[in-house]
UniProtKB/TrEMBL annotation:
<protein>
    <recommendedName>
        <fullName>Autotransporter domain-containing protein</fullName>
    </recommendedName>
</protein>
<dbReference type="InterPro" id="IPR003991">
    <property type="entry name" value="Pertactin_virulence_factor"/>
</dbReference>
<dbReference type="GO" id="GO:0019867">
    <property type="term" value="C:outer membrane"/>
</dbReference>
<dbReference type="InterPro" id="IPR004899">
    <property type="entry name" value="Pertactin_central"/>
</dbReference>
<dbReference type="InterPro" id="IPR011050">
    <property type="entry name" value="Pectin_lyase_fold/virulence"/>
</dbReference>
<dbReference type="Pfam" id="PF03797">
    <property type="entry name" value="Autotransporter"/>
</dbReference>
<feature type="domain" description="Autotransporter">
    <location>
        <begin position="486"/>
        <end position="754"/>
    </location>
</feature>
<keyword id="KW-0732">Signal</keyword>
<dbReference type="InterPro" id="IPR012332">
    <property type="entry name" value="Autotransporter_pectin_lyase_C"/>
</dbReference>
<dbReference type="InterPro" id="IPR051551">
    <property type="entry name" value="Autotransporter_adhesion"/>
</dbReference>
<dbReference type="InterPro" id="IPR036709">
    <property type="entry name" value="Autotransporte_beta_dom_sf"/>
</dbReference>
<dbReference type="InterPro" id="IPR005546">
    <property type="entry name" value="Autotransporte_beta"/>
</dbReference>
<dbReference type="Pfam" id="PF03212">
    <property type="entry name" value="Pertactin"/>
</dbReference>
<dbReference type="InterPro" id="IPR006315">
    <property type="entry name" value="OM_autotransptr_brl_dom"/>
</dbReference>
Length: 754
């Protein structure tokens, strides 16, 4: 390797002062490469400083150097090497190029002078007549005392899987303080899978320096990368001492920005910045000082969580969202289907002030009508387009005197606002959005309606479900009791599966659909009787009822029950059936409110009911029979109180029922071989529910569950005696009443005689 020792002259004073590039090496000597020459540093060479003049320096794996000063179209190739400087740049490129891979470049500050700085990688050019400097850095670590990378005058930097750190060394040169990961003055930097950290700011961007150089725009492209300002803003854009030109920042593909002061982008000193975020989720504030310009955009599933102050414009596409954290202001907002969430992640309400609004999209807003507070959107200029308000729901009633809450004020324009979901649930009732002419423009306000909220409907529906559950469970037992009237007088065990659907009308308090599925089982035995036949038994079972109150609001009731029953049949066909049954109802409601959020609540109640049926089994010619009957059933269900997790309070005094029924059953018995038979039948009955005043209280508002009224019941079935000890059964039912309808009911069962 051939080198020549020469004395290094310092750079011109204005450049040295502004850029912090005091180039005089310790002792003033270095290995010098003349124009056209080339040298290689390997692992066996002694570390020393290098000065290149239109030359090339290659550092191979394990090679170590001091600072590298490359000028006038020189080339530096470092692969697996180390460059460590003391008091100057680790690698300086003046109108030169570097390819750096698997390297470590460190610049140490060894002086207390306020005009001295050490940059890890320093790129610039002497004047406009020379070419720009460039560096491609891969899988490397660069650190500097003051600045990790300092790039000016159109320099181009490419970072791939590289870490850059700027320590807060002695660096007060020019308008930029020390502790910056990367400074760009009219230069471009692309980052892929890389991290830039500054003890103060992560990245500082300014226009090109004044004097011999013209102003130029700076550009940062962060692709899957991170920029961190440990104490200050992640990215600071300033016009510096040069005329302001537009600076651009592209943040893409999962990149992150973090500012120790909570600011991810700060624009000051009359600077101009364009900030594009794509497919990244950023957290932090954007601060634009008066007199500066910042144009922001969010697209391709991007999000910004933070406060925006004094931004010039913001555009949000239909896959992206801005989640506000505190009061914000934007001169012009364009929504291309995007979302602005004023609710943020804190309990405080926010105010968004816009100069102009256009496009279409969604504003998510929080409210507390009980306190008369909410998020607020104000457009001081013109608003055009169509927007939806996604308003946070609650189960808490507002104060009586505050049935109206203004959410939006627009000074001018024909913008239209509507509620997502068509309404908002506030406690017991739903609210709608109304437009009103107000002083200085138009207001959009929430106004109370007489329509029940989704939560209220779920509460009323659950409280009214117990009677239909009890009757659905008990209906299958009637067929078991009827087996004695078929001439089967021995006891046995039995099991039945059943399902029912009920439609409840709004006249009963709230409209909903109820589907019940269950299983019942039991055993009975005959008792001695001087007259007729007497059978007694025990039964139990479980059913699950699903309530559908539309729009995603639902309820579930799990019912567990035990009972006793008895049938007495006289010789002339007269019979008496009796049943007493106790239930435990486990109730659960899940409410999908109009804002898409869910509220839940659950409670348990107990009930006991009894039924007595009298009738006569009359045999007719050709094995036909007719069986007229009358029945009275009663149910008592205890009241209960419970809360939904959205703040709603609900209670019920009871859910009782008193049902009278009269009807007849007609069928025919077809005798088969060996004593077997098949018995199809049809039934018809008229029933009347007498209880009409089951009370429900929701947030101290009282309502009545009314299932009273008359109804008609129809049914058909078949019983088949297969052997002396085995009988099968199946039937279907239909019922229609004023406040209740049963489109279908089915049951199948089997009995085995002892």
């Amino acid at each position: 390797m051939k080198s020549e020792r020469v004395f290094m002259r310092a750079a011109p004073w204005p450049i040295a002062v502004f850029l912090g590039t005091a180039l005089t090496c310790e002792g003033g000597w270095a290995s010098y490469l003349r124009p056209g020459s080339e040298a290689t540093v390997s692992y066996a060479d002694t570390p020393e400083d290098w000065r290149l003049n239109n030359a090339r320096l290659v550092v191979t794996p394990g090679g170590e150097t001091g600072n590298i000063d490359a000028r006038w179209n020189s080339t530096v190739d470092i692969d697996g090497g180390t460059a460590t400087s003391r008091g100057s740049a680790g690698v300086l490129l003046e109108t030169s190029r570097a390819v750096i891979n698997n390297a470590t470049i460190t610049a140490q500050n060894i002086t207390s002078s306020t005009s001295e700085a050490s940059f890890g990688l320093h790129l610039y050019r002497y004047d406009t007549d020379t070419g720009v400097s460039s560096a491609v850095v891969t899988n490397s670590i660069i650190s500097g005392a003051g600045r990790g990378i300092n790039a000016f005058d159109g320099a181009e930097v490419s970072l791939v899987n590289t870490t850059v750190k700027g320590n807060a060394g002695v660096d007060t040169v020019g308008p930029i303080s020390g502790g910056v990961g990367m400074v760009l003055g009219g230069s471009r930097a692309t980052m892929s899978g890389s991290t830039v950290v500054g003890e103060n700011n992560g990245v500082v961007m300014v226009s090109g320096r004044t004097g011999a150089q013209s102003s130029a725009a700076s550009l940062v492209v962060a692709d899957g990368s991170a920029v961190v300002g440990e104490k200050g803003s992640a990215i600071l854009v300033s016009a510096g001492n040069a005329p302001a030109v537009e600076t651009r920042i592209d943040v893409a593909n999962g990149s992150t920005l973090k500012g120790g002061n909570g600011v991810i982008l700060e624009v000051e000193n009359a600077a101009i910045a364009t900030f594009n975020v794509s497919a990244s989720q950023l957290e932090g504030d954007v601060l634009v000082q008066e007199g500066s310009t910042a144009k922001l955009s969010l697209d391709s599933n991007a999000s910004l969580t933070g406060k925006v102050t004094n931004a010039t414009s913001l555009a949000i596409d239909d896959s992206s969202a801005w989640i506000m954290q505190g009061h914000s202001s934007v001169n012009s907002l364009l929504l291309n289907g995007g979302t602005v969430d004023l609710r943020g992640t804190t309990p405080e309400f926010s105010r968004l002030t816009l100069g102009q609004l256009e496009g279409n999209g969604t504003f998510a807003m929080g409210t507390d009508l009980a306190a008369g507070e909410s998020d607020f959107l104000e457009v001081t200029g013109t608003a055009v387009g169509s927007y939806q308000l996604l308003v946070q729901n609650t189960g808490v009633d507002p104060v009586q005197a505050n049935d109206t809450q203004t959410l939006v004020h627009v000074a001018e324009g024909d913008a239209q606002f509507s509620l997502l979901g068509g309404k908002v649930d506030f406690g017991t009732y739903a609210y709608q959005l109304e437009q009103n002419v107000a002083e200085g423009g138009t207001d959009w306000s929430l106004v109370k309606t007489d329509e029940l909220s989704e939560s209220s409907q779920a509460v009323i529906g659950l409280f009214s479900a117990a009677p239909t559950i009890w009757y659905g469970e008990s209906a299958t037992l009637r067929t078991r009791m009827g087996e004695l009237r078929n001439g089967t007088d021995q006891g046995g065990g039995w099991i039945r599966s059943y399902g029912n659907k009920f439609n409840m009308s709004a006249g009963g308090g709230v409209a909903y659909k109820q589907v019940q599925q269950g299983v019942a089982f039991g055993a009975d035995a005959p008792l001695p009787s001087n007259e007729g036949q007497w059978l007694v038994g025990l039964m139990g079972g479980y059913s699950k009822s699903d309530l559908d109150l539309q729009q995603g609001t639902s309820g579930t009731v799990d019912s567990y029950y035990l009972g006793a029953y008895s049938t007495w049949l006289a010789d002339d066909g007269f019979y008496v059936d009796a049943l007493i049954k106790a239930n435990r109802f486990q109730n659960h409601s899940e409410v999908r409110m109009s804002d898409g959020e869910k509220a839940k609540g659950n409670y348990n109640t107990a009930g006991v009911g009894a039924s007595v049926e009298v009738g006569k089994h009359i045999k007719l010619a050709d094995d036909w029979f007719v069986e007229p009957f009358a029945q009275v059933s009663g149910l008592l269900v205890g009241g209960e109180s419970y809360d939904l997790d959205n703040g709603m309070r609900a209670s019920s005094n009871r859910a009782d029922s008193l049902l009278g029924k009269a009807g007849t059953q007609v069928g025919r018995t077809f005798t088969l071989d060996d004593g077997a038979f098949v018995q199809p039948y049809m039934k018809v009955a008229a029933a009347h529910e007498f209880v009409s005043r089951n009370r429900v209280s929701i947030n101290e508002n009282r309502f009545t569950n009314d299932l009273s009224g008359s109804r008609v019941e129809l049914g058909a079935g078949v019983a088949a005696q297969m052997t002396d000890v085995l009988q099968l059964h199946a039937d279907v039912d239909f019922m229609k009443g004023r406040n209740i309808e049963q489109p279908w009911g089915v049951s199948v069962g089997v009995r085995y005689s002892w």
